Amino acid sequence: MTSLKVAEMTAVVLTLGGVVGATAVPFYYETASVERQIPPERQVITLTGVGHDGVWTDEEVTGANYWRRSFRRARPTLEVGKRARLRLKSADVVHTFYLPALGIGPVEVYPGHVAEIAFTPQEEGVFEYYCRTVCGTPHFNMRGVVIVGSQDPEATAGRRPERVEYWREPPPPEDASLVRRGEWMFRQKGCITCHGPAGQGGVPNWNYVKDTVPALNTLAQTMFLFSPEDVNFIVERLEHRVPLESLEEDAPVPRFSVVLAQYESIRNVIRRGNPAGKKDPKGPAPPLEMPAWESRLSDADIDAIIAYLLTQQRREAAEQTGETP
Amino acid sequence: MFVQAKGIRALAGTSPAVATLAPRGPATAGRIDLLQAVPGLRWLLTRRWFQFAMILPNLVLFLLFLMAGTFGSPVGNRNIIIIFVWILWWFLLISVLVPFLSRAWCIVCPFPFFGEWLQRRALVDVRAVDPKKGKGGPGTIIGRNRYFGWNLRWPKSLTNIWLQNIGFLGLCTFSALFLTRPIVSVGILGALFVIGTVLAVLYRQRAFCNYVCPVSGFLGLYAMASTIEVRSKDADVCAKCKDKGCLAGGERGWGCPWLMYPSKMDRNNYCGLCMECLKTCPYANMTVNLRPFCADTRLKGYDEAWKAFIMLTLALAYSVIYLGPWGFLKDWANIAEKADFTGFLIYAASLWILALLAFPGLYYVAVWLGRRLAGADIAPAKEVFLSFVYPLVPLGLLAWVAFSLPLVLVNGSYILMVVSDPFGWGWDLFGTAQIPWTPVIPDWTPYLQVPLLLVGLAYGLKTGYGHARRLFTARGQPVRAFAPVSVLLTAITVLFLELYLG
Q1: What is the ipTM of this complex?
Q2: Which fold has domain A38-156?
């Protein structure tokens, strides 16, 4: 055999080795390194934060599938008393994983890094996890449950937020009413996930002084607007972009100065956010807080949301009696 | 499949590259023969395994990139395919390889690897055959080598770089997409592998590299400015040579895969530096020279001229979009994230009109004005136009270097990160995965860009004026003829300076 034939055979072997090596070695290394790090007696859960879907998923997120599909929301199940290791990844932006009931987090999770937490669940239950960094429009959807033991999740998880891809809802037509625009905004911005459908509230908030996120469908009462006429008056003025302050002298609404003060107060809470008070001062911070919307909502947007919420009580009452609201 | 072997003379006569070559001897002024000056270099370059040994590591690396783009993190700055290909590779290519080493990238380029393997059924070996005795048997005999596949001739109407021009412009229109999404880069690189392989099976030799590869187009153009070349040492030796091994191949190597006639080669444009001619020349008359910057100064067709227009337009457009303060332009270009189809349409149409019509039109007016000012119609209009477009080669090349410099300085720390964690899976192979993003001397970048642009302008003016003196011989004519183009070149440079210093 000539030296050139030997060189040719060597080249073929090297080529095939290179192709196989480039395609197989990374997976082998990844599998081997994870297995090396984690003792066999541990339960391993890998969760990846996916910003565009608003989920922590237990599916593999790669460059090939990230852009073309949605991912399953993870519902990991753990055994009581068995050591577990949580491996947290991000597929896109910075997320913050928080599982307060099990004392995990908040943990910042950066793309390209794996944050690992070892823990041992001590009691059965269904425990909510969250993302604590506003990571995009679907952020408020970024919640799920960890099940420890074999309890029925639906029985213990409390009131679940409506499962809608709110961030993908198309906007209403240009000529839609202020209330209609407010309704869309309430859903599209994700308010719905914490404050519940139509602002009914009831979403559990761990260690929050009121236990659940406040309902907003009673906003009319909060603003001292007790009659439908009063609500209509305010909504119409907001619709026509009339500053409510300019009406202080001759508004037909009783105790208008109080209404005005409440209106300003609500606008400020939406603009600047509001930390959730702790029920147990020594316990973890409640996972759900009112974020500041100043940079993401204009004053007109905020008025639209207020107008929508003001009409909710009336609408619910009308629905109960079968009347047209 | 067997096709009657052509005679070597006929092969030379029908080679499209040969047909366009002027029968002139190689210029040797200011050249240093590197094969004489560097001990061992001739030995290395004439090893049959040389190119294979160069390509293989790169092939493995690019396969790794494809794997990382497909299975790794979707985040661009955490995936090696984005950082290595579009930041490191691009910077090295445009700033180091092309200006100093001509088409050295083509030596290591992995895209035609599988196609050439199928075509030759050999990685380092040579399939030599005596055309008179070797009839029969599998494959096609071309010159004194046997090839496999269909070995069709590339359509004559496409023996230019227009496909490369349009392909590159088309690709660059979607730059925001492939610069941020690893999977899109996988699509592009994967397509280059597939197209390169398919074309090698269908057509003769490096048809893909010569006429289709979008990277090859601008490499060829800017390689004209490069400081190395492969040339024959003595034209007389070539003229008396009966063997023509550089063209026809033989036992020592393959006939020029780029369909060039190496012994008469006088430009770098279509020489892929595969070094086959060094191996096949029976007189060791082919060599690698070190030469001055911008030694090749003749554009030979409108396809090459338009490549120069497209490249400079893209350098300008990218500087505006990616380095400029106009966020809305970035949003327009970023169709995938922003989904602003109207904006994208405006951006894409503006880019194409500027590159293919407006800029060439403006340039044509400047050339026409120069000829009018010179008051002479001695030189053919096409030759004047092509000669005066040449200054866009050094200016364009240096403008690209100036544009690429901040990209690598600002994003260079990502290179260290992805070296340790190529897939974005949380590895830390070399302890550099946790390095924070650290821009390098961002405040000083303009002071590096300014001299680069001025050097480009200086070479543009020098070579353009050289052409003017060659084409317009009467007293005062060269200055008048070149004046409008020189004003335009200066204005373009000022525009870049304004952008970078603004």
Answers
A1: 0.90
A2: Immunoglobulin-like (2.60.40)
